[in-house]
Fold:
Amino acid sequence: MKIGFDAKRAFFNSSGLGNYSRSTIELLTKYYPAHKYLLYTPSTKDSIKFNIPEKVKIYEPKRFLSKLFKSYWRTFRIANKINEHKLDIYHGLSGELPNKAHKRSNAKLIVTIHDLIFLRYPKLYNSVDRKIYYQKTKYACEIADTVIAISEQTKTDIINFLEIDETKIEVVYQGCNSKFQKEVNTKKKIELAQKYNLPENFILNVGTIEERKNCLFILKAIKHGKIKTPLIVIGKQTEYQEKLTSFASENNLEDMLFIYNNIPFEDLPGIYQQAEIFIYPSVFEGFGIPIIEALYSKVPVITTKGGVFSETGGFSSIYVEPNNEEELSKAIKSILSDKKLKEKMISEGYEFVQKFNEEKIATNLMNTYLK
Structure:
């Protein structure tokens, strides 16, 4: 088959949709190299490098106006390329498909929908962005031959919010970068501990530091339970970060909070693998990749009750209400004080997370294409 991808996010988003896009392209080209793959991106200048075979073709606009108006090129011009290149499959990896692509080519159209948070929690978005996201997502789902949802939770939301026929929706889980599946050697861990001045023992949280991720809840639980194990927070900074630092300052917890905004991706596995506990108290996610990263890193996980989290965290993780400080503090203390519980969570979590290994994900994607 000739398979094309909307690859803008793969080349320019360092997390989230970018990770998913890069992973999808890397896995399919690795496990199914016989097919022809084409990547469509508005540019490759100053882009993120990732592992793709030399024979994979990259197409970017040549005309001046298309280079200048990149979103226009993605929305309106790629459809002509899909037809010109005689693709069998075109996969929109980040919730979008080109305008009238279903009318301008014979390619089968697939779109991945990650979440509908902008509809579930509209107050987190301004009205203009919310309207644009809705129109793009709704249109993509309507013209797609198949919609890939990254979780059962997202599938349910697509059906309920967008009124899309469930028979055209396939659930294909995502995984995490294979670097998290490898043991980091002791020397490297020591180097990272020294580089970032890591505490000997720490609780870890990874993800964009924003309201929805609910990181302040961890600090409140630490204060409530008088827990002495510090918290390391790694992620992109937003205004919400000020709430964390202010709370720490007001409650004499400055020595309990370490925030890092720009840690290179290659350093993350070695930091994960040194954590005592990984806590992910997000209010809502489409999937929650950091949970998978933690389970592969053999770290016990505490996350949120409801939503997608039980799909991602499995039966070994501990689930708490996202605003119950006493419940979270008890969960933290139980793991820190009970060696057998911690070992059980680690072994069972590692066994569970194998369902997200890269070969299974690649197989599920390819089966969707073949279908």
Remarks:
- The chain has a mean pLDDT of 94.
- The chain has two domains: 2-172, 178-356.
